[in-house]
Amino acid sequence: MALLEVKNLHVGVEDEDIKILNGVDLTLDTGQLHAIMGPNGSGKSTLAAVLAGREEYEVLEGEILFDGEDLLELEPEERAEKGVFLAFQYPVELPGVSMTNFLKEAVNSVREARGQEELSSADFLQYMRERAELVNIDADLTKRSVNEGFSGGEKKRNEIFQLAMLEPRLAILDETDSGLDIDALTNVAEGVNKLRTDERGFLVITHYERILRYITPDRVHVMLDGKLVQSGGKELATKLEEKGYDWVREEAAAAAAA
Amino acid sequence: MSTSETEYLKGKASEEYEHGWYTDIESDKAPKGLSEDIVRFISHKKDEPEWLLDWRLKAYEYFEQLLESGHYPDWAHLDYERPDFQNMRYYAAPKGKADYDNLDEVPDEILETFERLGIPLEEQKALTGVAVDAVMDSVSVATTFKEKLKEKGVIFKSFGEAAKEHPEIVREYLGSVVPYTDNMYAALNSAVFSDGSFVYVPEGVTCPMELSTYFRINEQGTGQFERTLIVTEPGAYVSYLEGCTAPMRKENQLHAAVVELVAHEDSEIKYSTIQNWYPGDEDGEGGVYNLVTKRGICKGDNSKISWTQLETGSAVTQKYPSVILAGDNSVGEFYSVAFTKGHQQADTGTKMQHIGKNTKSTIISKGISADYADNSYRGLVKVGKNADGARNFSQCDSMLLGPDCGAHTYPYIESANPSAQIEHEATTSKVGEDQMFYCHQRGLGEEEALKLIVNGFCKEILQELPMEFAVEAKELLAIELEGSVG
Ligand SMILES: Nc1ncnc2c1ncn2[C@@H]1O[C@H](COP(=O)(O)OP(=O)(O)OP(=O)(O)O)[C@@H](O)[C@H]1O
Ligand SMILES: [Mg+2]
Predict the structure, then answer these.
(1) pLDDT tens across B302-327, in order?
(2) What is the pTM of this model?
(3) Cα gap A216→A32, rounded to integer Å
(4) A4-257 in CATH: which number?
(5) Nearest residue CA, atom 31 of ligand 1?
């Protein structure tokens, strides 16, 4: 069944005459992992932000269904509770806010929404240790303030750790593979693979075919000027890696002219 | 910030003040207005020694002079009407005996008042490890754990009692750190102060428990003018906390306290404040004017004074808990969180005066503003010419929770010694939409997110509070942030 259906989505920026997404169509089934590639500024992060409910973007047309339900009706935190997770391209620092407090609030609000009981402090800490081990994140990081003073790579890995903690239905990874060293990259990929289940869907935004060698996508889409203009299997990523985006632009222009 | 957040933050201003109720007890009041007779009346009510009355009268005379020549301390970044000194009452005491020898004598209404504020006065119910002096309006109504402290030689009692029972100590130190000539409100306080706490820790003694005074304004139209004096003899240590609340009133109430701390050689005083006076309503009407003078002197070598404050209440706050670093190697610290919302205004900070050699001071100030509130840090680091090797570190961070509030920092440095090292850092941050969105994306609502972010911002300061009160402080901040989020 379709976990996520994006239909003819047009998005602009509130109060400004800017249009970013120009008719995105996308269907993701449960258990699937789709990759989205595309040049800088084509609208990938905007799509991710709109899915997560960022208010500065205005949906001009189209709809988004999550498990058949209208996602656009929901507040960002309600979407999170329903199981939408976004690993940010630029994770934010929360000075002085301990990872433990932050995640405890987060996990418990998601659990409450799912009709599960709040975890006791002891159970929570135990759970936190298990998940940290699963995605192989340095336990020291989980003792610090959220992203405060983390290196770029540490911030990215922390997003995967939070993904493991929150166990969402839909995980959107916005360039989580950028800026990682080789070991960290395989680490993140392993984490993602461990977290792939039949109930969970993944949308992986990336510039590099490299990560897709570790996590095999079911589909690869190309975003250009706010539209998904090409879709294919894994081999599409290889082709982009070799040839760049020029041919995509040409084909899109030809299709538009026709 | 998005509209819904702005709305939410606005909503917080209209939130009910938790301690806004009033206890209906008969009270013994002075008539409204200020005169020499009122000063005499207060002194008489308290059955004071002659020398103290004389001191009060001198202070009153000085106050009159300042008033006539218009010497108001109104240079701060604050905007409020000057108090009408003739239109308030300078003494109110719950009727009956002013100070009770035994808790059994304290009327039930008073015990209930403090119990409702979360300060049970019966020792068996009290927080373990905390002795409390409870002050209602102008008088101390009860002091707990007196006996236990007495075993160690620690004196902890109301100012009134101390003036009678330990006149030699009180007389030696009263006005020695904050003379009545310091400023208009210090002069006023010296003339009409009603009660407050007195602490004396003898040589070599570490006070076995936290000492705490809880101030409650109850009567209408009454100013609160308490005086606190803490003295630690060589090698002694004490940790002291004051807390305060007041009922909701349409008019503005004046609170003009004076606190004096004296630390002798190798001794340490840790003074913490949780200030939650009534801040006024959402239109900025009513609320307490909190205009207090707090200063400590590190008299002896290697002594230390540390001020920690959490300021969430009052319509107007103007206070600069300061340290005179006279002894060599002495240490002064100032840790502050000032949270203003609604129409609250705060101008607070500290003065660190380095006189002795190798003296060291640390200032960490966190200001948070929401709604239409204005929050200023004002600090002076002054290094005298003999203060070789003096060091100061100052950090002032401000956080704005909306588009209509303000934050200001006024750091002043005066150094007469080239060997001094003075470091100053300041930041202003807005709780960004990015931070809020990050929290929302993890399932946190507006309120939860703000609480986490604000608590995180204040963490360094809250850690400085004695453990017994750190929890209370966090809860208070949480209540401040709670709102009508729809
Ligand atoms: N809030 C905003 N206001 C104005 N323009 C915006 C806003 N958000 C995005 N844009 C613009 O929309 C376009 C798409 O941005 P987006 O961040 O979605 O691109 P992207 O595909 O994620 O790029 P990259 O690969 O560099 O991360 C860019 O031109 C960007 O400047
Ligand atoms: Mg992007």
Answers:
(1) 999 999 998 888 788 889 999 999 99
(2) 0.79
(3) 10
(4) 3.40.50.300
(5) A41
